[in-house]
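Predict the holo structure. Ligand: LLP.
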Amino acid sequence: MRFFDYLDGTLCAEAVPLAKIAAAVGTPVHVYSHATLEHHFKVMKAAFGDLPVHICYAVKANSNRAVIATMAALGAGADTVSEGEIRRALHAGIAPQGIVFAGVGKTDQELRFAIETKVRQINIESMSELERISTIAAELGQVQDVCIRVNPDVGAGGHAKITTGKASNKFGVSQDLAEKLYGLADQMPGVRPVGLSVHIGSQIIDLAPMELAYQKLADCVVRLRTRGLDVFRLDLGGGLAATYDENGIGPDLAAYGTMVRKLVGHLDVELEIEPGRLIAANAGVLVSRVIVTKENGGKSFLVVDAAMNDLIRPALYEAYHQLLPIQQARPDAALTPIDVVGPVCETGDTFAEERLMPPIQSGELLAFMSTGAYGFAMASTYNSRPLAAEVMVSGDRWQVVRPRQSYEDMFGTEILPDWL
Ligand code: LLP
């Protein structure tokens, strides 16, 4: 379903023209569609049918509280990887019992905060982490539910930088060690092992690697139970791809649901999944204005007012984002190749090379599509560019959900040392 489309020749978010938002708020601006977020959650849920699945939205994809609150209202939990994300999830209305705390390097302070908060579960990534959690929880007189994160030695995902499931990656522990830790955890005073978790990568279209990983997880469950250990929860991670290009190629969610049912449905475990991108990517666009067009070395450039600090995915992962003019091009408009770049002083600040585009003039508006996940969430103020504004649309309503950063907010808290 498309919630960003042309109405009367102008690109809209649901029923709101993006040009109207740009005129009121300025550019660059990230615009999110509430209906798309809801739609993706429901499609994901439906893929599992009657399987008991707790959907923990991966907050890292888009951590604006309006987005998390949209998920909370649908009954989602949260997958978090820092104290900041736990705090955001709580602020946005997700109950502690819905929050999973994951991540390869959790500090003692973060662990203490999570345990005191009584989060649903902490996913363990090493022996020392398990010991630290048990010690802190016991000090607090609590028992923390934990899952052991298995590294199944299965690679997957759209780019080497986002593959997490190979043995050589920093994430999780081997199956053998996971089973050993499970037994040890069972004897520790401050923890209760409840299950296993896995996450092998992101932007996964082909389900085969996930199937392999889940099979390994299921095998672990059987072995642990044979040893008399109780295992009643599996966290299947996130990673399902969003469609970024015009061809609309993405994972088959119905097939995913069927695969999960086949592999772990008979184990009588509660399930968790942690989708981020699938929920948020196509629920957002980044609207930018063309500053100038120029020719250089035989090439044509479109310099826009968004940059790698607003959307780093193309620079970091060679990611593709569809680019649409806000004013719909005439169907017979000639397309010419053009490099679309931002103003940051790096050649890496390139969004698209030789992209076929209709004629576009300075001052016109463009939308980078599918930027709702890992767009604003990865933004910085590099080149002292303020963080862009964020807006959420619902039907014909829209509201700023985070104003553009002021210069005062950007550097007003910096302190000059006494000797200057
Ligand atoms: N669970 C865990 C343990 C994760 O590490 C991640 C993502 C997710 C869930 C959510 O994955 P998703 O469903 O969104 O694929 N910045 C990169 C993506 C990094 C993903 C990191 N981990 C990008 O823009 O492509």
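Residues 58, 61, 79, 102, 162, 164, 199, 202-203, 237-240, 274-278, 313, 317, 373-374 surround LLP (CB under 6 Å). Residues 3 and 14 are 5 Å apart (CA to CA).
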